[in-house]
Each structure stands twice: as structure tokens, then as C-alpha cells.
Amino acid sequence: MTTQHHGRFSPTHWLRKAPVVDYRRFFTAAIRHPGTVGAATPTSNAVADSVGRVVPDRGEPVVVELGPGTGSLSVEIRKRLPAAGRHVGIELDERMVRHLRGRIPEMETVHGDARELRSTLPKLGIDSADVIVTSIPWSLLDENEQHDVLRQCRRSLAPDGVFTAMTYLPMRHSPGGRRFRARLEAGFGEVLTHITWRSVPPMLHYTCRHPIE
User: CB-hemisphere CA count at 13 Å for 68?
Assistant: First the structure.
């Protein structure tokens, strides 16, 4: 994969544009659940735009978002999702759930845990998801948690579905980051990577297809 960087990017400029309310809600959640928040800041527009590209723009796709947080990714998903599509967000923090239900009422926001994905989706009448988007801190999860949640994600995907995950670029070299990459390569027939440089710090995206059992 070749990553290109177009134009100049100023972290200070991006930080000035980030909604203050998102920072306040985000850091409150990080304090309440430090082990479940996947990023140090709300997601940048550039990251959200990259994630939105995996969402089908026609038909009746089901998109499941694990850990939508302040909804930065959710907004971009909604922009691309066709009218007949379905968008479900599973969020652990109750305050974020209330925030999301007010900010993005079109998304079905569920108060739940990614570790209970397989039992949550049938309750919503969902057999499988066409896209699963995750913002959970994969590199911080222990070995058993990584294995369990990834297995549930694979089993929840449609045969031609897409699983996408993000991690800060420096974290790819951590023990948890290396273990996560190895699990993706063992669990999917195709694993593509992309780096969004217009993020502080840069974000590494994984786009995975063809789940293997």
C-alpha cells in the first residue's frame, strides 16, 4: 500500500477546529472508563472520512459501530449510508449513549459492551452486519479479550462484509498492537492497511474482508 500526503497539515489548526463539547464529553468518558476509550482525542475529520469510505452507498446495508464515543465517525457513516440502510452504535458509557441519541437520532444507539456483540445483535433483529467499524483500544486489550471480541466480530459479519479497526500508528509496535495484527491476518483472508497522517498522532486503519473461522 502506498500512502500519500497531500498539502500541509497543522495539528494546531485541526485542534482549533475540533468541537469543544466533543472534547469535554470525550475526556469525561476517558476518566470514567480509561480501559475502554480507544483514542486520546476525538476522531479527526480526516480519520472519519477514511472510515466512511467502507460504508456501502446503495442497497440496505447494516453498519454496526462499536464504541462510537462522541459520534465523530458516526456522522460520516450517516452521510454515506443510503436511506434504506441501518446504523447501530454499541456504546459502553451511559453519558455517551445519551449524547449520541440526541446528536444522531438516526443511529440506533445501544447501551452495551462489544464483548457481548453476538448476543446483542439478535435482540435487534440483526443476523449479520455488512460493515463493523470499531474504535475500541485493541492494543490495550489482553490476549483473551482480543481473541473473544474479534471472534464475535468475524462471526457477526456477512460473508462479503467488511471489518475495520483503527489504532494510533505508534501502537502497532507495542506487544498488544503486534498481537492484534497477527490475529487479523489469521482471522481474515484479506487485511489492508491505510495511514491517515492528518491526525494527531497519525492513525493506522485496518480494513479486513473474508472472515475465517
Answer: 33
Rg (CA), the chain: 16
- Tell me which residue of 91, 59, 94, 60 sits closest to 73, measured CA to CA: 91
Q: CA 11, CA 15: separation in Å to the nearest integer?
A: 6
All three cell numbers of 10, joined, read 497543522
> Distance (Å, rounded) from C-alpha 189 to C-alpha 169?
23
| Pairing, β 203-211 against β 157-168 | antiparallel
Domain of residue 102, CATH code = 3.40.50.150
Residue 13: inside a domain = no
pLDDT tens string for the chain (213 positions)? 333 333 333 333 333 344 444 434 433 443 344 444 444 344 578 888 888 889 999 999 999 999 998 898 999 999 999 999 999 999 999 999 999 999 999 999 999 999 999 999 999 999 999 999 998 888 888 899 999 999 999 999 999 999 999 888 888 888 999 999 999 999 999 999 999 898 878 999 999 999 997
156 in Cβ contact with 118 (< 8 Å): yes
Domain extent, residue 129, equals 42-209
Would 120 be classed as within a structural domain? yes
Handedness of CA 181, 72, 136, 26 (dihedral sign): positive
Counted domains in the chain: 1
DSSP-derived secondary structure letter, 51:
H
Query: What pTM did the predictor assign?
Result: 0.80
